[in-house]
UniProtKB/TrEMBL annotation:
Belongs to the TonB-dependent receptor family. It comes from Hydrogenophaga taeniospiralis CCUG 15921. It is a multi-pass membrane protein. This is TonB-dependent iron complex outermembrane receptor protein. Keywords: Cell outer membrane, Membrane, Receptor, Signal, TonB box, Transmembrane, Transmembrane beta strand, Transport. It is found in: Cell outer membrane. The lineage of its organism: Bacteria, Pseudomonadati, Pseudomonadota, Betaproteobacteria, Burkholderiales. GO terms for biological process: siderophore transmembrane transport.
Length: 647
């Protein structure tokens, strides 16, 4: 359909970023791989960059939707949170513990649950993103905790890019959703760059039918329509100031989501069950050259707060569940280019988790309140050398050593060899290790003495070892191909034991996979991205992982429609069948999304129309087995209309 429309209208050379040539797209630098700027060909990973114009062209509404456009990535939504699957692993309900998400290099994963937000719970409006950097594979050699399967670094826009005021309003049906944003940005004559933005969202959600089965084991199924139980409210605030080498930013997110599915095994079809997540994330940073121009210093301090609040009924009694996290820390990093052919980085990072508290309360009963206080710290020292061995051969050698208050010291090494075989071909060979210590929520308590519960010894850290080969080849100035072959082994996976009601170290996992992708651009502004991924992830005893599709296919096509003043974005995504945590088979599916953007109909006005699940495909996804419904149906066709005013 997109090709037919493109042929129907006379084409002209486009001038915006959506029509950048392939060579220009490849010149976009990456910061998240090594904490300093690198060309994509120099990064020791199969790195991908999603630009702001791609987000606008395809109308992605969440960070997860943007990331699932990439090879080897899929997502799952359980009507509370969105979970990311990477290279075969997506444990239902795991809160994205094994992917590190950062905003301008500042860690988003909070310290109590290790959770990374990716859906509407992400604490930044997607309109404020300049680019998304996705670095698959272990990133522990630079980042330490959580970077087992990849690092997602979100780079925000600056005030000069907005240069005025942006006002946005959008509606979406049938979710009965309304949202808005106001952003003000400018670079002042003094050199101070300032951006301030506030966003809000409110949705009533859909009234859906659920069959919860025999809840009370009395031979009677509980089923019905969850009416007005899928609502959502979200408020976000973002400010960023930069002047020369100095920068400061503050991000606040407050999201409440109603629970229509009784996901944690609470009483089904009872209204007013909800979860609420509040984040506060700040950092102040200096990054600039010292007196010696071959030395660059990065120094930053950060502070974060996270509050969790949930209310749900069990056997007719209402319970309150809370979590409170307060963290502060700092990082120092030196980058030296003094030695010929070497780029040497040395750094130290400290984080003090003053609060990692969790609580449970039977509402209305003073003697049924339990507070599980906790605190901790972690420290890491890292070093990396990017060594140019010859004009065509380079090596990256890195090591990070982390120590924490939970279970001692862990090391995360990595090594990569990058060979520029021809001007158009690059081969990367990489090995690496990363780890994750058990978080505060995975520390089990001994209730044998109910008056004074005690904390049990920690389980072992998870450790992943990865090997990978990546081959990039430029077939033509406007066509590039990539192949990535990988193998990973994860040991001591932390899992919940239903028999002992404790967290334990589970069996070893192994996976191998192949990712093939192509990127094609045309001088008239068209672009085609396509990928096919084959992945097989299993436990050591041979059983396949839950929520792990063997095949993923992606196709993204965009083109200008000059005669209509539009730009069209069409995406198609295929996911093969997978297994739910309960053992049931979940059928595969293919989804189509269509998005049209009009930016030239009137000066300073942009209008877009997005249709998600274009052909109203009925499909389901596996979720955590802690609730009544291990497989949940997903949304059908939805339509979103958005208008943006810039002045």
């Amino acid at each position: 359909m997109g090709l037919a429309l493109a042929a129907a209208f006379p084409v002209r050379a486009a001038t915006d970023m959506a029509a950048l040539s392939l060579e220009q797209l490849m010149e976009i630098t990456v910061v998240g791989a090594s904490k300093y700027e690198q060309k994509q060909s120099e990064v020791a990973a199969a790195v991908s960059v999603i630009t702001r114009e791609e987000i606008r062209t395809f109308g992605w509404r969440t960070l997860a939707e943007a990331l699932t456009s990439l090879p080897g990535v899929h997502s799952t939504y359980d009507r509370q949170y969105t979970y990311l699957g990477t290279r075969g692993l997506s444990q239902p309900g795991d809160l994205n513990l094994r992917v590190l998400v950062t905003i301008n290099g500042n860690r988003v994963n909070e310290a109590s649950y290790d959770s990374a937000t990716l859906g509407r719970e992400f604490l930044l409006d997607l309109d404020l993103i300049e680019r998304i950097e996705y670095i698959p594979g272990p990133g522990g050699a630079v980042y330490g905790q959580n970077a087992l399967f990849g690092v997602v670094n979100v780079v925000t826009r600056d005030g000069a890019d907005i240069d005025g005021t942006e006002m946005v309003a959008a509606v979406q049906s049938p979710q009965r959703l309304r949202e808005g944003r106001v952003s003000v940005g400018r670079r002042l004559d003094s050199g101070l760059d300032l951006l301030v933005s506030a966003s809000g969202l409110r949705a009533r959600g859909e009234n859906r039918f659920y069959d919860f089965g025999d809840v009370d084991d009395l031979g009677v199924n509980v089923a019905g329509v969850a009416t007005d139980m899928d609502g959502e409210r979200d408020k976000e605030f973002f400010t960023r100031m930069t002047k020369g080498p100095w920068s400061f930013e503050l991000i606040h997110g407050d999201r409440r989501k109603d629970d229509p599915t009784a996901l944690a095994g609470s009483d089904p079809l009872v209204p007013n069950q909800f979860i609420r997540d509040r984040y506060l994330l700040t950092q102040a940073q200096y990054q600039g050259q010292l007196a010696d121009p071959s030395l660059e210093l990065l120094a930053r301090v950060f502070w974060s707060e996270y509050r969790y609040h949930s209310e749900a009924p069990y056997w007719g009694n209402w319970y309150l569940f809370t979590g409170a996290t307060s963290s502060r820390g700092g990082e120092l990093r030196l980058l030296s280019t003094a030695l010929p052919a070497h780029k040497l980085m040395v750094g130290v990072e400290l984080q003090d988790n003053q609060r990692q508290d969790m609580g449970r309360e039977w509402l209305g009963y003073e003697d049924e309140r339990y507070l599980f206080p906790n605190s901790g710290w972690r420290a890491g020292v890292y070093v990396q050398d990017e060594w140019r061995m010859s004009p065509t051969l380079a090596a990256t050698l890195g090591l990070r050593v982390d120590r924490n208050s939970v279970n001692g010291t862990q090391s995360s090494p990595r090594a990569a060899l990058i060979w520029q075989a021809t001007p158009a071909s690059t081969l990367k060979a990489m090995v690496g290790r990363a780890h994750r210590a058990p978080n505060a929520a995975e520390r089990s308590w001994d209730f044998s003495n109910e008056d004074v519960p005690t904390l049990l010894p920690a389980v072992d850290s998870e450790v992943i070892d990865t090997r990978e080969l990546v081959f990039d080849h430029r077939m033509a100035p406007d066509l590039s191909l990539r192949g990535a072959l990988y193998q990973w082994t994860l040991k001591d996976l932390i899992v919940w034991d239903k028999n002992t009601w404790q967290w334990v170290s589970g069996p070893r996992m192994k996976a191998s996979g192949l990712e093939l992708s192509a990127n094609k651009t045309w001088d008239w502004g068209g672009r085609l991205r396509a990928s096919l991924s084959r992945q097989q992830a299993r436990f050591a005893h041979g059983v396949g992982l839950a929520n792990s599709p063997n095949w993923l296919g992606k196709l993204h096509f965009s083109t200008p429609l000059p005669a209509a003043g539009l730009r069209l974005g069409y995406e198609w995504q295929l996911e093969s069948a997978r297994r739910a945590a309960s053992g049931e088979r979940v059928s595969g599916h293919g989804l189509s999304n269509l998005h049209l953007v009009a930016e030239r109909w009137a000066p300073g006005v942009s209008v877009s129309l997005g249709i998600h699940n274009l052909f109203d495909k009925a499909y389901s996804q596996p979720v955590s087995d802690g609730g009544w419904v291990p497989i949940q149906s997903q949304d059908g066709r939805s339509v979103r209309l958005k208008m943006e005013l810039r002045f």
